């Protein structure tokens, strides 16, 4: 703790004042604290630089002699061994026949801080906007966003889980989302490749807005309210038993199972084999 000295001083025309005086000459901990912060920041920066160097070296091993950039990357334990791994969507600007290529690559982290490649996809999903990567309970989620603005958004998310027997990741789920923010409506289709079940949901909120632009170019937003909102869900099964591995996986050669089931905009479910 710093050494504090309190002095009581009296001014001729003012009441008693309390003055706190720091004896900095006895405050050796201040210098120690500053030094500790500097050392800590330096160590953190050095660790980050070393980690980036190890990731860059691992990437160079997968893409030898090629230019590449990381579109989105994430760290976390994906294969369940308790050690942080690394996954990234990588862009190769000088692909085959001059075509830009995208790859999803996953590296297993080792206890010495190095990285070893586990899986490398083929040409990936080429979203119109961007990718989002996340990790939860040893599962890798890759969201490909088709469009996103203040009025609407659409994306699909692929879910990969490590399979120790294959020493590779397998596709275990897919989720397609479409949202209209102004209308306060959404539509979702979720595919579970483990249970072979597709779940669908359509939602329409009670409140919504309408936008307009005035003559002087100012956007005007008016809020409205419906009598009630709507929500409908359905589910069905599919028979596809194909296993999709991440190694060599290409979005163009893959499609979600289509059972012909859907919920229309009037919230009617079209499904002759709907599950109860």
Question: What would the keywords be for this entry?
Answer:
single chain, 276 residues, mainly beta, four-stranded antiparallel β-sheet, 13% helix, disordered N terminus
Major beta sheet, strand line-up: 7-8-9-10-11-12-15
Structural class: mainly beta
Order of helices and strands: EEHEEEEEEEEEEEEEEE
Helical content, roughly? 10-25%
Largest sheet: 7 strands, antiparallel
Fraction in beta strands: over 45%
Total count of strands: 17
As a whole number of angstroms, the C-alpha radius of gyration is 28 Å
Give a description of the structure:
With 276 residues, the protein is mainly beta. The chain has 1 helix and 17 strands. Strands 7-8-9-10-11-12-15 form a 7-stranded antiparallel β-sheet, with no helix packed on it. A hairpin with a 2-residue loop joins β7 (130-136) and β8 (139-148). The longest helix is centred in the first third of the chain and has 35 residues, at 28-62.
